[in-house]
Specification:
It holds the Pfam family PAC2. Residues 306-317, 325-335 have a biased composition (Basic and acidic residues). This is PAC2 family protein. Residues 296-335 are annotated as: Disordered. There is one protein chain. The protein is of the alpha/beta class and 335 residues long. It has one domain (4-310): PAC-like subunit (Rossmann fold), CATH 3.40.50. The protein has helices spanning 36-47, 58-61, 111-124, 174-184, 206-220, 227-245, 248-268, 285-289, 293-306; strands spanning 8-10, 22-28, 50-56, 71-74, 77-81, 87-92, 98-105, 129-138, 148-152, 188-197. An 8-stranded mixed beta sheet has the order 1-3-6-7-2-8-10-9, with helices on both faces. A two-stranded antiparallel sheet has the order 4-5. β6 and β7 (98-105) form a beta hairpin. It starts with 7 loop residues before the first strand and ends in a 29-residue tail after the last helix. 41% of the residues are buried.
Length: 335
């Protein structure tokens, strides 16, 4: 068996900050409705000081033919290559507390070797808790607060959740596998899945990302900025409402989702078990997607310009799209 350290390289100062209490992982993959996890990673890299700690070998982990990196061709020559980067960065929150962020594309290959390598880094860097974040599509309306499905490797790490869907089988993903392997190795691991309206699953949904940042801060006590995400969420909500208001058919479907959501929340407050699966037929994504096609196309186009591996990766302080640095704040998220 190969040494898991063969899968990554570390900086000379990688272990100078150890122990680092928290590692957040937000790897871009098929399971990230509303690009919620990607938005969290991009936001934290833009808002907080970052230093590259470890870089994984993409040739060992990425299937280039199934997920081809973008290249730029201009003036009869190739000028750019969007190299996939899977990296671990050391950040500091608004109060100077260190945290680690694992980000980049979800590996296509060698999942077991990759999880072994992450566990090795967790041990070497003295990480006490890992937190995975992403979005999942749900039959919820955009007019209600974002809810989060929380899960953990042992009792006491998160508030005991309501019964949502019982036992289900889901497609495998690196975030889930990391949580499983960390738990079996005796590490504390937490996952927060933001419930994104299924008709907005392909568009960027900053409401979900903002709530995920609040969940991370609340679970760890880290002082994390959230104001820019909240501002983007308000703008997105205004755009969605504008599109919905032009179609009575879409409005009717959203209203049906609101009734279902409100009925579930009311029932969930009672002692009897409840689930998100209603007795009546649920509205489908296609019912709304047809009316919101123009809006989603616009959002997807904007997301496409930012979905490359360079969009959220900022090695050693270079690159990125930082709009500024956060000011001083109290523990937990601030506006």
């Amino acid at each position: 068996m190969r040494d898991p350290q063969d899968l990554y390289t570390v900086s000379e100062s990688a272990f100078g900050a150890a122990p680092v209490p928290v590692l957040v992982h937000a790897l871009r993959g098929s399971l990230d409705a509303g690009h919620a996890g990607s938005l969290v990673a991009r936001h934290l890299l833009d808002a907080l000081p970052a230093e590259r700690v470890a870089t994984f070998d993409p040739d060992e982990l990425v299937d280039y033919r199934s997920r081809r990196p973008a290249m730029v061709f201009e003036d009869w020559r190739y000028t750019e290559y969007d190299e996939p980067v899977i990296a671990l960065d050391l950040l500091h929150d608004d109060e100077g507390t260190p945290l680690l962020l694992l980000h980049g594309p979800e590996p296509d290959l060698r999942w077991e070797a990759f999880t072994d390598a992450v566990l090795d880094l967790v041990d070497r860097l003295g990480v006490q808790r890992t937190i995975g974040v992403h979005g999942i599509p749900m039959a919820v309306p955009h007019t209600r607060p974002v809810t989060v499905t929380a899960h953990a490797t042992r009792d006491g790490l998160v508030d005991r959740p309501r019964q949502i869907m019982g036992t289900v089988q889901v497609p495998g993903n690196i975030a889930g596998l990391l949580e499983l392997r960390l738990g079996r190795a005796g590490h504390d691991a937490v996952g927060f899945s933001a419930n994104v309206p299924h008709y907005l699953a392909q568009a960027e949904y900053p409401q979900a990302a903002a709530e995920l940042v609040r969940q991370i801060a609340g679970n760890t006590g880290l002082a994390l900025p959230v104001g820019e995400l909240e501002a983007a969420a308000a703008e997105t909500l205004q755009q969605i409402d504008s599109q919905v208001s032009t179609s009575p058919e879409v409005g009717a479907v959203v209203h049906a989702l609101e009734q279902q959501y409100d009925a579930y929340m009311e029932a969930a407050a009672k002692p009897s078990p409840t689930t998100l699966i209603a007795d009546r037929e649920l509205p489908t994504a296609d019912q709304i997607a047809a009316e919101l096609e123009a809006f989603l196309a616009e959002q997807n186009s904007a997301a496409g310009h930012q979905d490359g591996d360079g969009g959220e990766d900022r090695p050693d302080g270079d690159g990125g799209n930082a709009d500024g640095r956060p000011g001083e704040g109290e523990p937990g998220p601030r506006a």
